[in-house]
Design a protein that fits this description.
By secondary structure, the chain is of the alpha/beta class. It has a single domain, classed as L-arginine/glycine Amidinotransferase, Chain A. It is built from ten helices and 16 strands. Strand 2, helix 2 and strand 3 form a beta-alpha-beta unit. The relative contact order is 0.17.
């Protein structure tokens, strides 16, 4: 693999956003009426700026959804169009089973890392085959899909688009993913596959109720080559306070490639959101999605939502900030970024 490759930053120009639509065979089976409006809100927000690639378990739903979304886009004179493809899936977390894009000297490539449902926690076989299914259906045009025999989820890697990636050791070093790889071997593989020239490791930070073993996209995000926003807990009585304070100190010690520190911007800490059994859910404002001209920001119907939106406006003053109610998504222990995967310019042309 060429050494000139690099994983684009999320703010790089995009052609489409990928969604894997909920269906009765997923864990959403008892909540479809609640969760489909969330996916529709995401889909309609994306279509205001770019195309949408949706995989659906059932042919009828794919045809119905494509017609519905494209009629709406045309009626509102929007630039985006939807392409909905029948394809089997275990669940809806496109961030983690979707392809990871890289730019190479030959153009764009998509990498199909192995997906094993965060270390074998849930069924995963359909999700692991989904990218190849979409490629065979022509969804990625002429963009090649490279298969890499290494377990890696898109939510576990954060790129600045200049060769620096940020990850967590809790996730990438979990033995149920790649037990034969130590830290040096993982860094070498990230260099070969996504062009990582520097890897920034966070060794602290977590969210209660998180099934991903501390994905970076729940904790800290690049908002530019020199800026990182991150989750900060200000309540010493909260169970998260020690780990997130330690994470904040690690972020302070991170340096850019030129040796200068990063600008650090803390995100508001949402009040505790509990499920029906009283267990805490992993609500986080770090799980936003950057698209062409906009940022889709998760909200949870709590008092801190407005402060989070204000922070996002400060972080991305040149983009429209679109709130997406994600209280239902977090019931299944994920949020907005987790159900989406952006695809670079030129990949999905409709």
């Amino acid at each position: 693999m060429t050494s000139t490759r690099v994983m684009p930053a999320e703010w790089a120009p995009q052609s489409a956003v990928m969604l894997t639509w909920p269906h009765p065979g997923t864990d959403w089976f008892s909540r479809l009426e609640e969760v489909e409006p969330v996916f529709l809100a995401i889909a309609r927000a994306v279509l205001q700026f770019e195309n949408l690639l949706v995989s659906c378990e059932h042919v009828f739903r794919a045809e119905q959804l494509e017609k519905e979304l494209n009629n709406w886009a045309r009626e509102n004179d929007l630039p985006g169009r939807a392409h909905c493809v029948p394809a089997p899936a275990n669940d809806t977390w496109a961030r983690d089973h979707g392809p990871v894009a890289v730019q190479t000297s030959d153009g764009t490539s998509l990498i199909d890392f192995r997906f094993n449902a965060w270390g074998g926690k849930f069924p995963w076989e359909k999700d692991n085959a989904l990218n190849r299914h979409l490629a065979n259906a022509g969804c990625f045009g002429d963009t090649p899909l490279e298969t890499v025999d290494f377990v890696l989820e898109g939510g576990s890697i954060e790129s600045d688009g200049q060769g620096t990636v940020m990850v967590t050791s809790e996730c990438l070093m979990t033995p149920t993913r790649n037990p034969d790889y130590d830290r040096a071997a993982i860094e070498a593989l990230l260099g070969e596959t996504i062009g990582a020239r520097r890897v920034l490791w966070l060794n602290h930070g977590y969210l209660a109720g998180d099934d991903t073993d501390s994905h970076i996209d729940t904790l800290a995000r690049f908002c530019g080559p020199d800026r990182i926003c991150y989750v900060r807990c200000d309540d010493p009585e909260d169970e998260h306070y020690p780990a997130l304070a330690a994470m904040e100190e690690e972020l302070r010690l991170f340096r850019q490639a030129d040796g200068s520190p990063y600008q650090l911007v803390p995100l508001p800490w949402p009040e505790a959101i509990l499920d029906a059994d009283g267990e805490r859910l992993p609500a986080t404002y770090a799980n936003f999605l950057i698209i062409n001209g906009a940022v889709l920001m998760p909200t949870y119907n709590v008092a801190q939502d407005e402060a989070a939106l204000a922070t996002c406006r400060d972080l991305f003053p040149d983009r429209e900030i679109i709130p997406i109610p994600c209280r239902t998504l977090v019931e299944q222990h994920g949020s907005l970024h987790c159900v989406t995967m952006q695809l670079p310019r030129g990949v999905v042309e409709l």
